[in-house]
Fold each of these.
Amino acid sequence: MFLTFELTVAKPAIVVLFVFLSLFSYILGPYLLYLVEAGHVAVLTHVILEDEIPTNQIRFGLTEVRTNFASVTGLFVLDLAIRRVLRQLNAIINRIVSSLTESLSSGGRQQEAGVIQGVVGIVQLALNITISYVDKAILANIYRSDAENNWKPAKDGVLLYAMTWKPVLASALIISTVFYGPLIVVGYFSEEILDALGGEEAVIAQIERSCLAFRTSDSCLPSSSCSAY
Amino acid sequence: MRLYFRNAMKNMVKTYQFIFLRVAIGLALAFGLILSLVAST
């Protein structure tokens, strides 16, 4: 009796729960966030073109998104696809760079390895920023035009984005340098920083101590990442 | 080029209401993630 209940009720319920959770975390959640982002793009476009700030920006963005709802949904799918492609690209770049830096580090050239990691990080982040804003450029051009059919402004948006590659790439490089510049400095002076902190062994012992303080005794395995490091 | 970047930043700051909204959503998501991690261990 109980077994049949389990098989007929519990199993579909688990499946439904699983489908709902995966839908929410992969499609619905990002979609809601993208709607907010689209509203932000609408307000930004209005501010740039009219040089006037709407009093209730959230409501303004909401109405703009509502009038171009189909286009926003289509661009969300484009954004998802771009993100997937970028993830693959980043994985390939990371694999190549990590093999290079590992061989450099094992040859006793940690400074060069650190600098290469930082420079590649800058280029990678700039590339990601540049590519992932294509759909926002299309969206802004759709908001700008009053055309009935959104297909032509969308095509023009891609062209305009490609035509302004210089300032876009420069801005992306500025942003990624702010993020990765400190990493290059730390990578280049890693030996000096380690010496100033009392040598490699002292730093590793300190990391192990703080890891031990952080994790509880039940949930830690003897060969966790901390002791292996 | 620098002027372009500065103008972009200025226009971005003008949309402060949306920036607050997005930061609030991001903080809420991060807080929820940390809470769920703490609850699962």
Amino acid sequence: MKVKVISRSTDEFTRERSQDLQRVFHNFDPNLRTQEKAVEYQRALNAAKLDKIFARPFIGAMDGHIDAVSCMAKNPNYLKGIFSGSMDGDIRLWDIANRRTVCQFPGHQGAVRGLTASTDGSTLVSCGTDCTVRLWNVPVATIMDSDNSSDCSSEPRAVYMGENAFWAVDHQWNGDLFATAGAQVDIWNHNRSQPVNSFKWGTDSVISVRFNPGEPNLLVTSASDRSIMLYDLRVSSPARKLIMRTKTNSISWNPMEPMNFTAANEDCNCYSYDARKLEEAKCVHKDHVSAVMDIDFSPTGREFVTGSYDRTVRIFQYNGGHSREIYHTKRMQRVFCVKFSCDASYVISGSDDTNLRLWKAKASEQLGVLLPREQKRHEYNEALKNRYKHLPEVKRIVRHRHLPKPIYKAGVLRRVMIEAERRKDQRRKAHSAPGSIVTEPMRKRRIIKEVD
Amino acid sequence: MGVKQENGDPENILPPIEQELSHELDTKVKKYLRGEGANLEVLKDKKLKGQLSVREDLYGISAKAAAKAEKWLMPSKGGYLEAEGIEKTWRIKQDAINREVDISSAKNQYDIVLPDFGPYTLDFTSSGRYMAAAGRKGHLAVVDMKNMSLIKEMQVRETVRDILFLHNELFFAAAQKKYPYIYNRDGVELHCLKEHGAVTRLQFLKNHFLLVSINKFGQLRYQDVTMGEMISNFRTGLGRTDVMLANPFNGVVALGHSGGTVSMWKPTSAVPLVKMLCHPGPITAMAFHPNGNLMATSGKEKKIKIWDLRKFEVLQNIPGHAKTLDFSQKGLLAAGTGSYVQILGDFSGSRIYSRYMGHSIVKGYQIGKVAFRPYEDVLGIGHSMGWSSILIPGSGEPNFDTWLANPFETSKQRREKEIHSLLDKLPPETIMLDPSKIGTVKSAKKKDKPTKEEKEAEMEAVVEAAKGTAIRKKTKGKNKPSKIAVKKKKIVERAKRPFLEKQMEEENVAKKKQKISEEISLPTALQRFARKKATA
């Protein structure tokens, strides 16, 4: 006879000293976990609910400007700093962590229209409606950390005069060129008072310009004649042009997939394009109910933030048709500029009500240093929500957002209008000869033509 | 499926030992995959297909990791009893086992003789650390089984029919003469559940925090013990019974009745989910296998039956009487009757139970309850003169999971687990026969034919519309009220006609079908007696 029975000595299964950690054991046998699927579903529901409870995205407002904030620029070299320019010509450097002005630049005579910082973070370039481009020295980080908000009333390092008002400026990545947009696109060097190059295609003014993060000589602009143009600095003429049905207010390149850019359009939508294939948008991002004013990609390239004339800020997945998140407050007016912070965890919006607002990029994220156990728990909850996101109850909780009444109503109205149009199209198609009416997909419908 | 079968060339290269290991791992992986993966071939959406295949791969990886953990990281090995030569395992006595095993295990063999208050019934906590015992004449005791110390003992001075622990060892419920009561570990009476009445049997659903009771009048009650809410109250209408058991796999409660039927209940429906006739006579005991697919029942006609709960089919008929039945964690079945306990085991893996062990207690003691102690190779026997404990090698799960049931739990861990289990408390709606349906989406059902009411409503609507049609003014003489009335009637009839025609057509079809089926149903030899057609 051979016999063995389970026998556990207490010493093997408990800790020796009170300072030790408790010993833990795992057994993943499915038979020991009864109703595991129901329990998991319940946990997913709880995770979705907890997410709603902890969703407090608004961190604070930064006031100081005395007119609407028109443009912002990130300091690529310093995480806490952000520049903002306002309609009265004021330029400020903010410390996001303390939410206060660190430095105030004398600025422009008229409105500041564009701001950008060089990649090394030492130079700030601003342009405005007073037909000047000004270069500023950015104070070093030690000054920013000191308590007194110094009035760096330093004169601009250089003032370059142009002929017409400027609408936008953007600095080259890893280079010393910057481009301004106005009546034409000018390419400037830091050290020369005259543009090194000028491009003009069409008659209307150019309203936004953005350099490609991957290929430093490529830039994209949008003009008020509803066109989006691609330029290559190595050749003297513009490369390609795309004309849409409505004006594009702002453009942002995807930093992780630098052949793709997303255009914030006047028709409430954003359109993601592949720069190599402009005849069709890759994705249409719908949800805003008024013109989208500004767009900025997260440094991760997985999502982007938009600010709109409908007084909301939305966050979209780079390939998602609808927004993941909407931010609004009672006091926030038309949003003119938005930026993702360089660590992808905050969003900053500048609006008509003279304030900059700081938001969390993930509404329910826990800030601060997380313990490993907390981290694991958050990851587990995230995975649960992701697994059960298609089930009606979880979906309802995750998707629900409270909206201000005017925005909600405008959204409903928009849906009704789109639906009516779709129905009308269907009927027209049904009552005409087969094949005579071709419905184009939404990705193509708003494009008029592409010019080489 | 996500796990890539490493067949083909690499397997031939491996030395035989490693091949064997990989085979062993494969069988283990199968357990952790929890069934077949989704069939992705039918999907047309490429994006969805990609996402799902990534997820299936992840499932495969995690199953493999779990299998490896089971193979290499488990601290204990299971018990066993093997006969050598002409020995038979069922002839091996407890004394013989006692001589072979270590001292700490041998301590688990004992008899407690309490002649005054028997017969006794037992219940273990899910970790197997604590035991509650109740004597019929009012003796309640809670024992710590690890160091064999009595935690609390009291005398309630009335009949106690059943005792069980709630979610942890701090609370236990006792079904007493008139009402069930809830006590805490110190013996303080916390609640008297008067609504339940004179309860014969109690059950507790751990995931749902539901206390289930069946009373003298055959009323089944579910009460939420967290908020005290009475979830449901059903009159079974099948008479008094004291055979009730919850299926641990899905939370369905089964009742065994004196008519030989077993009915299964969930708290959200007043009619049983299943009513199956298991025995020709009264049912004396029931037990569920921990994986939820097997049920054992025993009847007064001296039969023990093993049932497959997926097909509701009898798998095996074992002769023998059982007053009480219990499945162990590893699937051994204990059947107690008179003063003898028989242990059956499934050794072939084909769900055919055969003799494994047997044990006789002192002649004249009547066994009332057998219960395997979780995570130990121990069987507790409650009988008319106290309780006994014997060793059944290979009955318990050797490895416990600290987060599920920990025999060495500290009070801090217990508190934390209580909070977590309360957060994960399931709503009563999750009790159903097939719990794998939870978390899936019901497939869109095609719209059936319109019902009779819908058809009628449609006709009514058309008739109303027809009545409302304005009648044009015609030449003189045709506008008389009588003529208009006739005309209106005609309009209504015309509107009704298509509906009536359709109805007639359907009726004709139904009649024809019936006729055909009548003809078919007669055997050929009898068809010449079928009703002849009028013409023939």
